[in-house]
Amino acid sequence: MNKSLLLALSLTAAAFSAHAQATPAPPVKAVGPVAGPAIVFEESKYDFGSVVAGGTVDHTFKFKNTGTAPLIISNIGVSCGCTTPEWTKAPVLPGKTGTIAAHFNSTGKMGMQNKVLTVESNAAAGSTTVSLVGEVKEAPATANAAPQMKVEAAEPSAMTTVKADAKKVKEKSGDGKLKAKVK
Question: Tens digits of per-residue pLDDT, 57-75?
């Protein structure tokens, strides 16, 4: 019984194998230009790495009209007011390229950022998106702090701390005058 079951399974497997080899693969369709306008970006996401809080990032996204009709970008929506786009306003002819310049101002932002620009156009596929991603890091504390110095008055109890923004600091303390130079 085992031999006849094994023989039946072998014949079945051989029949399926022969059928699979005899069936030709369907032809692959050549991908041609899309009817109407079509937008294809060189990159859809730009990783700017990191920027210090208050810094800016500028990046230009390049795209190509791979369709058969002129491409017109009507608007670009942004995920927040910290990102400003500028784009090719003239119709982009088939086979030609255009650009979208994105400017990100990190003032008031901290940590990981993902700024999305939604590109609205007459492309057959409808709207599409590109994005700026990266991290906004805190500015070093020493970069913004004014230099400090201690100035002693005639009396030790009248110790004063002065923040110096200028080269010379003058301060009156009671009866005496104090002068200090910041280097």
Answer: 999 999 999 999 999 999 9
User: Does 171 reside within a domain?
Assistant: yes
Per DSSP, what are the bridge partners of residue 137? 52
Residue with tokens 């060189």: 42
94 and 166 together in one domain = no
Same domain, 93 and 169: no
Are 65 and 44 in the same domain? yes
The pLDDT of residue 115 is above 90: yes
